[in-house]
């Protein structure tokens, strides 16, 4: 909860200016980018990546220098990410989303958090603090970059776009490219994105398994297909959005506990097993016989190309190339199983699919289900309570966020919303590479209470001290 001296409840971000910045390469012809079938899985929804920067070191310049860096560098970035200078519209024949790449310009928004220092914010409760930094922007804008200054000299950069264009890995690719381009003036060949949606074409005729079809649910049927009764959310229901800090030594302790002879569990597998047991305890207590865990899997790391995917282009693909794998189990079974066995179930669930065929089946399935909006059943809590884990800490572990003003103290993807019987956890590496984690949780109050009550303090509410914004043991010294 917010501390007594927190300024979060008084945080007001004032708009200073809003302008459009166009790509500088006049040779790029205007065109329409039809989204791929994989882009149609999430459909249109706002997503963003928030980067929080402490006051730059002496000699880097103040906030005016940050603004100038974007004014000078953003046109070059848009040359490589040209669709982000366009507008999101609808195909007049099909009604499906498309991107009109006419270099209408990305937004550059400048704002000011008057009288508030970064160190005074309540980082434990994202809704009361960080959510307030993002300013509204038009739904059709493909990219809106928000720069906000704070009284301490620190600042934030929010990369705001739409889920129909990117997944979390693609958004991280954008941030990395900006940092590299701003510092060096060029992008290495491996950092130049591919926007080729033809990589993911359906077969003729489309072919997919019954299991894949059953794993998705029409959004207009979600309410009646969620578990009835009180649910693990408790009688009051609702979702809380929290940020936790997990020390590296506690992650390793949990990893040791989740390992067994002959196999050492990964850090993500160990945390997944811990969460699964916590979920099972709540689900069993509420009368739900079963519960599920799901993991967001990045296809860029899993596809091997035999199914027709071009490997090199896949690795640099800028779009949606993630999927959700799910395992449902008896709550009592999960509670009885030793932690290493639960971790093994997590590992088997993520590694079992033949991803080349799975992604092709998903492309084929979408081809026959474009007329309605669907979502993964587990992400909506359909069937039984579920928690989804997105382990960005295991893929793009350390985002390069230094565009000339030092590395960010916090990098936080934003946009996913938990449902009545579905929670969401993002595991993020704490900037600095010390092995500690920041966990962004969008969960039910009862699950949050279970995490808070861990006797080893695995989940500590994130503070300005954890982010290096306050000197250790000196909460009176604010930046």
UniProtKB/TrEMBL annotation:
Q: Which Gene3D superfamilies match?
A: Chloramphenicol acetyltransferase-like domain
Query: Which key words are in the record?
Result: Acyltransferase, Transferase
One MF term from GO for this chain? acyltransferase activity, transferring groups other than amino-acyl groups
| The keyword Acyltransferase belongs to this UniProt entry's keyword annotation | yes
Tell me the segments the record calls region Disordered.
186-206
> Coiled coil as a keyword?
no
Q: Which InterPro entries match?
A: CAT-like_dom_sf (IPR023213), Plant_Fungal_Acyltransferase (IPR050317)
Q: Name one Pfam family in it.
A: Transferase
The family this protein is said to belong to: Belongs to the plant acyltransferase family.
| Protein name listed in UniProt | Omega-hydroxypalmitate O-feruloyl transferase
State the species of origin.
Answer: Paspalum notatum var. saurae
């Amino acid at each position: 909860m917010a501390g007594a001296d927190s300024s979060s409840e008084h945080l007001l971000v004032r708009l200073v200016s809003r302008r459009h910045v166009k790509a500088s390469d006049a040779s790029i012809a205007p065109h329409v980018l039809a989204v791929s079938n994989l882009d149609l899985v999430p459909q249109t929804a706002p997503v963003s990546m928030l980067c929080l920067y402490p006051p730059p070191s002496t000699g880097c310049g103040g906030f005016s220098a940050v603004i100038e860096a974007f004014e000078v560098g953003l046109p070059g970035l848009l040359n490589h990410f040209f669709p982000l200078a366009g507008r999101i519209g609808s195909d007049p024949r099909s009604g499906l989303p498309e991107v009109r790449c006419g270099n209408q310009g990305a937004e550059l928004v400048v704002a000011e958090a008057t009288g508030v220092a970064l160190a005074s914010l309540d980082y434990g409760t994202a809704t009361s603090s960080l959510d307030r930094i993002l300013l509204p922007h038009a739904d059709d804008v493909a990219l809106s970059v928000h720069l906000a200054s704070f009284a301490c000299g620190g600042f934030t950069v929010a990369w705001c776009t739409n889920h129909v264009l990117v997944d979390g890995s693609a958004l991280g690719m954008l941030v990395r490219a900006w940092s590299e381009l701003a510092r060096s003036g060029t992008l290495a060949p491996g950092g130049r994105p591919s926007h080729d949606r033809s990589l993911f074409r359906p077969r003729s005729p489309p072919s997919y398994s019954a299991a894949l079809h059953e794993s998705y649910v029409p959004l207009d049927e979600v309410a009646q297909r969620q578990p009835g009764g009180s649910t693990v959310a408790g009688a009051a229901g609702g979702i809380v959005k929290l940020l936790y800090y997990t020390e590296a030594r506690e992650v390793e302790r949990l990893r040791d506990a989740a390992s067994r002879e002959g196999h050492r569990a990964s850090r993500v597998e160990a945390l997944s097993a811990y969460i699964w047991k916590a979920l099972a305890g709540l689900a069993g207590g509420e009368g739900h016989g079963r519960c599920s865990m799901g993991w967001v899997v990045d296809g860029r790391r899993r596809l091997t190309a035999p199914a027709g995917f071009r490997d090199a282009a896949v690795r640099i693909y800028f779009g949606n190339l993630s999927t959700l794998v799910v395992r449902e189990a008896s709550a009592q079974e999960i509670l009885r199983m030793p932690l290493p066995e639960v971790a093994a179930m997590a590992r088997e669930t993520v590694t079992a699919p033949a991803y080349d065929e799975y992604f092709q089946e998903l492309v084929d399935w979408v081809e026959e289900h474009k007329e309605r909006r669907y979502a993964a059943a587990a992400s909506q809590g359909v069937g039984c309570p579920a928690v989804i884990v997105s382990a960005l800490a295991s893929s793009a572990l350390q985002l390069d966020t230094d565009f000339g003003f030092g590395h960010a103290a916090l990098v936080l993807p934003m946009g996913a919303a938990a449902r009545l019987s579905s929670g969401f956890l993002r595991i993020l590496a704490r900037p600095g590479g010390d092995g500690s984690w920041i966990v962004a949780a969008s969960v039910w109050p009862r699950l949050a209470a279970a995490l808070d009550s861990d006797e080893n303090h695995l989940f500590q509410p994130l503070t300005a001290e954890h982010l290096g914004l306050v000197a250790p043991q000196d909460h009176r010294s604010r930046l």
